[in-house]
Specification:
Blueprint (H helix, E strand, L loop, with lengths): L3 E6 L2 H5 L9 E2 L7 E6 L3 E3 L4 E7 L4 E6 L4 E7 L2 E6 L3 E11 L2 E12 L8 E2 L2 E2 L5 H8 L4 E10 L6 E11 L4 E6 L5 E7 L3 E5 L2 E5 L18 H8 L4 E6 L2 E7 L10 E7 L11 E6 L1
Parallel strand pairs: 1-10, 4-10
Antiparallel strand pairs: 2-3, 3-5, 5-8, 6-9, 7-8, 9-10, 11-12, 13-14, 14-15, 15-16, 16-22, 17-18, 19-20, 20-21, 21-22
Length: 289
């Protein structure tokens, strides 16, 4: 007799945006099959975090559970509860295979482990500029300390038509990071890393922020300072540079990440009164978009 195979990919991603709780737990809808009520404590986490997988079984004869990603560890708590962890960033499906007689059913859930810092100037703290959205930011980092809404405008050089767009800055003061969100699409359009103590003005109320502690690719981290000397040595002459404020200079690099050529920009800000005077200057913040 031919063995019957059934594959169930639990729609956890969809449920993420419709049933968020305080602990970001998510569940599948119980159905009349060998495995039901699959739940993950979280789906999108950092590598130091641990995820709890729970499910119920009914009327099956055998069961196996494996991860398709060798870096993802499965530790059994019971037959129907597992702890999931990883020491490396990456995603993978956890596959639960159950059988009874000639019937085989396969259930899959996906877990994503994120690394801190940035290696590519596209992803910061698990948030991908241009791809991640407001909901994924919430699930990974929670509510921001402050939100600042504003409107940006641009003029078409050919037609002279002025267009506007509504944006939000989400500030995580203690983490030293901020993200800009396009209001209509909800997409993350920009990420900012603060290298020193910083402050923002929210309707006249000054809020203080801490420096970012994660790593910035091959530049290191801000614990001992990142010098513009190293930025220049690694990336060369900036695409553009200029004065961004009182005693504040920016160096703007197009295609800082070659794998995202044509769609990625990195901006390094530092204190100086002269655009060409970067030697010995500490990077105060980094923006990528």
């Amino acid at each position: 007799m031919k063995k019957l195979h059934y594959l169930f990919k639990s729609l956890l991603v969809i449920l993420l945006f419709t049933s968020c709780s305080d602990d970001d737990s998510i569940e599948t809808i119980s159905e009349d099959r060998f495995v039901s009520n699959i739940s993950l404590s979280k789906q999108n986490v950092f590598i130091e975090d641990e995820v709890t997988l729970k499910f119920e079984t009914n009327n099956n004869e055998t069961m196996t559970i494996v991860s398709e990603n060798a870096d993802v560890n499965l530790i059994p708590v019971s037959d129907t509860e597992y702890k999931i962890s990883s020491t490396k960033a990456g995603a993978g499906y956890i596959t639960i295979t159950t059988t009874k007689g000639e019937i085989e059913q396969i259930d899959q859930v996906q877990v994503i482990f994120n690394a801190h810092g940035t290696e590519d100037y596209v992803t910061l703290e698990g948030v991908i500029v241009g791809e991640s959205n407001r909901n994924s930011l919430l699930l990974l980092h929670g509510e921001p300390d402050e939100i600042q809404q504003f409107t940006a405008s641009s003029t078409n050089e050919t037609t002279g038509v002025v267009s506007t767009i509504n944006l939000e800055n989400w500030y995580y003061l203690s983490k030293g990071i901020a993200f800009t969100i396009t209001d209509t699409s909800g997409l993350i359009s920009q990420a900012k890393i603060y290298g020193t103590n910083w402050a923002i003005d929210i309707d006249g109320d000054i809020k203080q922020g801490s420096p970012y502690t994660g790593s910035i690719g091959t530049l290191g981290d801000f614990s001992t300072g990142i010098l513009m000397d190293d930025v220049y040595a690694q990336n060369g002459i900036p695409t553009t540079s200029g004065i961004s404020g009182p005693s504040m200079v920016f160096y703007r690099y197009a295609d800082l990440n070659t794998s995202a050529a044509g769609s990625q920009i990195g901006i390094f800000n530092f204190s100086s009164d002269d655009v060409d005077d970067y030697i010995g200057k500490d990077v105060t913040s980094i923006v990528f978009l």
